[in-house]
User: Fold this.
Amino acid sequence: MISRFILTTCLSLLCTSYAYSNSPYQQLLTKYVVKAKVDYAGLKKDVISLNKIINNYKTASIKDMTQAQKMAFWINAYNVCTLKLIVDFYPLKSINDISKSKRWDHVRWNVGGKKYSLNDMEHKILRKMGDPRIHFAINCASYSCPDLSSTEYKATNLEKQLEDAKNIFFNNTAKGILLKTESSFFSGKSTVLYISPIFKWFSVDFITHSGSVEKYIRKNANPPLSLKMKQHSNLKIKYLVYDWSLNK
Assistant:
């Protein structure tokens, strides 16, 4: 006979899973985002579902949200509005193919009865929350941007999701961080820390948090990167090339 505790736990998990899977945004992510790549062609054919999600933001009540709820909410809002932006102009090769007036500064997204631009969401709301990890969670629809998660951000799991997003980006040597030994005829061998331009563009956020970009990386890097970095007290920093091609 199943104990009341086990039965209650199973029912709780079942209800949680059911509620989670019924989220329209989660359904969309599950269907069209695979290994951080987006099926924009498929999403464009299903634009009605995307529009419903966008329209739901118009009546969102943000005022009484907790800090974690607000952060998760605005990360999702930024990402889904970026998906909508790309779909509106698809097919295209890069988000930069969209005119500046229609891209990040376009005040077109109605959230809670007020219109915002994508830059408003990022710079005026998310960055002011003081957690640099938001830069690894929001996605600008480009290859070198941190991966678009196929899981909707939730306040109840936000800490783990932000940590996961940060670690995934840190461990991506193609667009995140690469520690490399280089040889020069004049200076001999040297160890160079290649990092994403994101660390330069938003350096003030990482400096405010940890004192410097390098200190932030050293503090947050996981093995084996952290172990390799500890072997070098003086690292030359260079920036990886940013690939703006569409993450399709």
